[in-house]
Amino acid sequence: MALPALTVRSAPPARRLARYYPYFLIAPAAILTVVFLVYPVGSVFYYSLQHSNVTQPWKDGFAGFDNFIAMASDALFWRSLSFTAQWVVVEVGLQFVFGLALALLINKTFVGRGIARALVFSPWAVSGILTTTIWILIYNPSTGVSKYLADMGIGEYGTSFLAGDTTFWAVVLAELWKGIPFFAILILADLQSVSLELYESAEMDGAGKIRQFTSITWPHIRQAVIIATLLRAVWEFNNVDLLYTLTGGGPASATTTLPLYVAQTAIHDRDFGYGSALTVVAFVILTFFSLLYLRITKTKGDDK
Amino acid sequence: MKRDSELAFRQLRRSTKLGAVVGVALASALVMTGCGGATSEPAASEDVVLELWDTDTRPERTENLKTLIGMFEKKNPGITVNYLGLPTDSYMQKIGTAIATDSTPDLVTPKASDIAALVAQDALEPIDKQFKAGGWDDQISPAMTESSKAAAPDGNLYLTPATSLADVIYYRADWFEEAGLDAPASWDDFYEAADTLTDKSTGRFGYTIRGGAGFFPQFVEMVYPKAGVDTFFRKDGTSTLDDPKVIKAAEEYAALYKKNTAESDLTADFKTMVAQFGAGGTAMLSHSIGSYPSHVAALGADAVEGVAPFPSDDGSTILSGWMTTGFAMFKDSEHKEAAWKFLEFTMSAEGNSFWAEKSGYLPGNLEVAEEAWVTENQPMQSALAAAAEPDAVLLQQPYYLPEFNSITTTDLLPEWQRVLQGDLTVKDFLTAAAASLTEAQQEYLGK
Amino acid sequence: MTSLLTPPAAPERTESRVPAPVRVLSAERKRAHRIDRVLTYVPMALFLVFTIVPFYWMLLFAFRPTGSTSLVPWPITFDHFVTVWNGSGFGIYFQNSLFAAVMSLLVSTVIALLGGYALARFPFKGKALFLVAMLCTQFVPGAMMLIPLFEIFNTFGLTNSLWSLIIADTVFQLPLSLILMAGFIRNVPMELEEAAWVDGCTRIQAFRLVVLPLLKPGIVAVGSFAFISAWNNFLFAIMFLSSQDRFTVPVGLSYLLGEFGTDFGALAAGGVIAIVPVVVLFAYVQKFLVQGLSAGAVKG
To answer: Is B413 near chain A, with CB under 8 Å?
Structure first.
């Protein structure tokens, strides 16, 4: 699209102009973000300082920090916060580990790998609404796996992995189904730019598979993995669809993440002020941990 | 107060104008690529086009509604109605966005329980005057009109009392027969049947209790009629949820969990329950008459019957789950006259008969209520028979309380699940629930 | 699709590059090879089972009659497909989803290529700030910003146009696309580009002739993320569009989930319809995911 326009100018790369190249290049992204996101994000911050509740319109108005003060004594807020941390760490950790394993596996040569690749990637392509429906049916006590297991004498009828001690892991599994391919696709693509000569010479030096992985593969994909885990963590943090549909945040709020709590407050209960305040807190937490994560994982030699 | 916030909001908006201008160039560049979907098809010059948003999008219903629209358009040349279906889970969010951005349609199909929130946002047009002027008072069931008015905080009529839902208990007639049980006729029969028909070793359960989203309406259906309490609030505006009779009935109800229900019911919402009932996992299910067609589709007409909740322990008949469902018009509609014509059509014998029959709802039009299809629908007959009891009282849920929805779902749901898990007693649960409903009611009365 | 047995002529990445005699001689190597095979097939099979079981469940519901609890879809029925296709105008949703997804793919890939190149190849002032700002846009859920977004699209006259969907989706997808693309570009050795400059290429030519071919796997990955996220978008579609004939496939699916009846058979059938094109697409593009330096196209 924009490439031909640049060609004209770049023939003798004038130094002065070249300084602006990067700004031209990031301009489309920056403009889109500014135009479409600054005001919406700003409005969330604005409403966090307001009482804005459709069900109590007579109370609407400037709230100062009331919403934030209310949070301190809101038990569900604190509980959802700690569950969110658990959810994100477990989900992203497992998605990454299995995604990496899958990418390494599928990068090998074996019979039928074309079909295998297409198949294992496909859960990523399934829409959220469909994913949850499939898992509802799988976990349903009458149409799901537990019924057929009970038919075979394993476990009891009328049980579901979604109600009981297994709730957490049942939801984790459903989300893994969709999340593993994300990492696998990404890592697989990144693996393609590793020079084969490196492996060949390593092999000649007598380096084993593990050694090859730690000294060639890992350094190569490391940067992408850091970014991908970070973005995925943010995504898992904010994604409420699956939890909302499978458990509704229950039983007894046990699987309520902070954004799920936000959805219940701001969208279902229409208390937009408090919901916005919760979102702002989530924003601050995410900013803090993202920067911390980037700082920790930064190594010398990386450009920013 | 409201003004201030609006002003500040405007200012905030203005500050982004510059960015917006920059963006126009880019956006228009993008649009150039084609599509051209932004313009809607032009209607004949003097034609009025009404936008109708439907909040229930099952394919059969969509089909029926479109037919209803076709019938209306034929009778009213010059008026076109555009249908838009909104999914059950997100229609209120869409409508909320539309209200906030002044882009509401002309017509909508809200439930009684949605009215308070819409009226609180000053979005709906009251139709009391037209209703009276049109003489509908005499043609529409007074009970339904009453119930529709009761849903609004200001007592005005917003929702046409076109149709109504009622709760029934569905049961597997074939299983009852197999077990040599008669159709349940009392609460004792119900609890006994739930126990008899539970056979955990084959995966059959007597009942499915709603532990997840939407638990409250079912809770009310199973508890209030049994307790014989016919009002949600006492004269002094305190909630009857902590009434000893209610607590006793609720204890019995909650005790069904695990004993006669699947353990998984702890988080079951309607989707889960209906999948269970349809797959032959459970003998009885509480829901509204509106879902009858889908049970018949899954199990066959012979296998499933419905019965209205039974008389209370002291012999009184309490009707629960009677909820008006109809049509309403938005305040910002530019074609209120045409919109009213449509609302009238849904209440008229012709429109009402078609719409109520096809949807499986109780018709609001008194003439239609006599028609054969009403007398032939078994669960509907059961609901109507209960309503015909001389001492029958309609239990009105306080939909007019704007907080009613958030209290009964967000606040109470986790606590209810704790009750089922055995971490909270029914009494403590109901005492706390009564306190928060009382508070909401007091605030409403004091306002 | 990729050939099953790699012909020696196609230099794919296999051990076949190791001189043959070495292989024959070493029994130990043979054993290692066998272990390697087991370590490939067994976990692969497990992954496949995990992937397929949920799909199978969906197929079961899509193809067996309502009310059946059989574990095989027999007797097979196509009723659910008829219901879905006739009942809710799936054809049009399908077209809309496809248009939105393709446009979203094109727009976000091009923007990501431009921005990614800047991030990967130039040091510039404000880079860190730009990155952090991009990241921050991901911190607020879209559901909290619907009203202001709607207002902005309204200003541009884009509400009720598929472009609102495409833009919103691109904007939310952009940080991911951009940052990932920067990483992929960074992994293409700078020396290759410099060599092209020496040969007289301009920066643009060098990018097109040298970098772009090597970026194929990255572009496919980023592009398919964008495609899929737009294809599956539900929230923006339902919120920004207000006419039935603009809706997308996920909206069509959600029609089948309701409080008064959920037709799981029809839903599963709709799901099959929704998934097939994307799976076919994956089956096609996956081979581009494994082409790059290792495909032997370019040697330093």
So the answer is: yes
Closest to C47 (Cβ–Cβ): which among A120, A234, A276? A120
Query: Would you write out chain C's pLDDT as a tens digit for each of its 300 residues?
Result: 333 333 333 333 444 444 444 445 577 778 878 888 888 888 899 999 999 999 998 999 889 887 777 888 878 888 888 878 776 678 888 899 999 999 999 999 999 999 999 999 888 888 889 988 888 888 988 888 889 999 999 999 998 899 999 999 999 989 989 988 998 898 888 888 888 888 888 888 888 888 888 888 889 889 988 998 888 888 899 999 988 888 998 888 888 876 666 778 888 888 888 888 787 887 788 778 776 544 433 333
In tens, the pLDDT along B208-250 reads 999 988 899 899 999 999 999 989 999 999 999 999 999 999 9
Contact A34 B19 (CB under 8 A): yes
Rounded to a whole number of angstroms, the CA Rg of chain B reads 24
Query: Which B residues 72-131 touch C at CB under 8 Å?
Result: 82-90, 93-94, 97-98, 100-101, 103, 105
Q: Is B33's Cβ below 8 Å from some Cβ in C?
A: yes
CATH number reported for the structural domain that contains residue A238 in this entry: 1.10.3720.10
Q: How far is CA B239 from CA A22, B252, B296, in A?
A: 66, 20, 38
Question: Would you say residue A188 lies in a domain?
Answer: yes
Q: Which are the contacts of A14, defined by CB distance < 8 A and separation ≥ 6?
A: none
Please tell me the distance in Å from B170's CA to the nearest CA on chain C: 14
ipTM confidence: 0.83
Does residue A52 form part of some domain? no
C-beta separation of B125 from B333 below 8 A:
yes
Domain that holds residue A200: 74-124+169-268
- Show the tokens assigned to C23: 């292989």
Is the alpha carbon torsion for A272, A277, A282, A288 positive or negative?
positive
Distance separating alpha carbons of residues C142 and A239, to the nearest angstrom: 10
Provide the H-helix boundaries in chain A. Answer: 3-10, 15-18, 21-33, 39-48, 66-72, 75-106, 113-121, 128-139, 145-151, 167-191, 196-204, 209-212, 218-238, 241-246, 258-262, 272-297
The answer as to whether A20 is a domain residue is no
Nearest-angstrom CA–CA distance, B212 and B210: 6
- Closest residue in C to A38 (Cα) is C137
DSSP conformation class of C71: S
Number of domains in chain A: 1
Write the Ramachandran bin of C195: left for phi over 0, alpha for psi from -120 to 50, otherwise beta: alpha
Q: Give me the domains of chain B, ranges plus CATH numbers.
A: 4-164+324-388 (3.40.190.10), 167-321+401-445 (3.40.190.10)
| Local confidence band at A211 (pLDDT 50, 70, 90 cut-offs) | confident
All residues of chain A having their beta carbon less than 8 Å from the beta carbon of residue B260 are: none
State how far the Cα of A32 lies from the Cα of A38, in Å rounded to an integer: 10
Q: Which residue of A has its CA nearest to B118?
A: A54
Nearest chain A alpha carbon to C263:
A133
Q: For residue A222, tell me if it sits in a domain.
A: yes
C276 interfacial to chain A (CB closer than 8 Å) = no
Lowest mean pLDDT among B313-327, B414-428, C96-110: B313-327
pLDDT at residue B262 is higher than 50 = yes
CA atoms within 13 A on the CB side of A50: 27
Q: Which residues of C touch B302 (CB under 8 A)?
A: none
C32 to chain A, any CB pair closer than 8 A? The answer is no
Residues A251-274 have pLDDT tens digits of: 888 888 998 998 888 888 888 899
Cβ neighbours of C198 (radius 10 Å): 9
State residue C165's pLDDT score: 93
Q: Does B205 touch chain A (CB under 8 A)?
A: yes
SS3 assignment for A233-257 = HHHHHHCCHHHHHHCCCCCCCCCCC
Residue B59 has pLDDT above 60, yes or no: yes
